[in-house]
Amino acid sequence: MNGKIIVISSGKGGVGKTTATASIGAALAMDGKRVAVVDMDIGLRNLDVVMGLENRIVYNIVDIVRGKCKVKQAAIKDRRIDNLFLIPASQSDNKDALNPQDIMRISKELRKAFDFILMDCPAGIERGFENAVAAADEAVVVCTPEVSSIRDADRVIGLLSAKGIPSKLLINRIVPAMVNRGDMLSHQDVVDVLSIDLVGLVEADDQVVISTNSGKPIVMQEDSRAGQAFKRIAMRLNGQPDLPIQVPKSSQSFWKKFGSKIGFGK
User: Fold this and answer.
1) How does DSSP classify residue 247?
2) Residues 118-141: what's their mean pLDDT?
3) Distance, CA of 188 to CA of 74 (rounded, Å)
4) Rg of the chain taking only CA atoms, in angstroms
5) What whole-number distance in Å separates Cα of residue 166 and Cα of residue 7?
6) Domain 4-261 grouped into CATH 3.40.50.720
7) Which of 80, 208, 241, 244 is the most exposed place for a label (fewest CB within 10 A)?
């Protein structure tokens, strides 16, 4: 086995990157791949909470690097989804506890044990970022349709390009009604600015908050639009790059649209 390492990055915090990591990892595992999601946010771990695995942590990635445990001892198996494992970050160390050489070394072991390794990159572009991208084969850059998020994503895309790491764009938390009103940038506006290929569009979905709080992967909820979008993103990363990208549409009814055009409902 020679697994692929994908770093999930954003530059800016608060854009749903950790949820995206957990969701894509769960979808890949549901598709039969052996997947490790790795929390690289040393000192501020959250991936364990999103996945509902916070009470089962014994070892973490810093322990692996320091030789306190093996990869398989630190990897927590998800009880609901076969083939899905979490390697948590340390809560008590800081980002200087790891360096890129450490990650390169343990990545060789991870590649042997898993088909996909998803690195949940911490916000920012300093040591945590350098560690997370050290062994990456490719990157998914998560941004929202907001100017500050797009600007930070542009910076990250430039840094990834300088390192020779190809990246794809995931636009998260799209609100179709706001796009229709002109109150939110369209996905095409974002793509035009950032000039990289799209891997998927994810609509804002209240069920994501419920999923995060309950620790149940959003991709297990058939009625979640965001969950279905993350499933399709996983399929594109897993050898189906030409799978059509669905653009989130407003749920406004025909009669409401018709009424607004002729002056009703104002």
Assistant:
1) P
2) 94
3) 41
4) 19
5) 10
6) no
7) 244
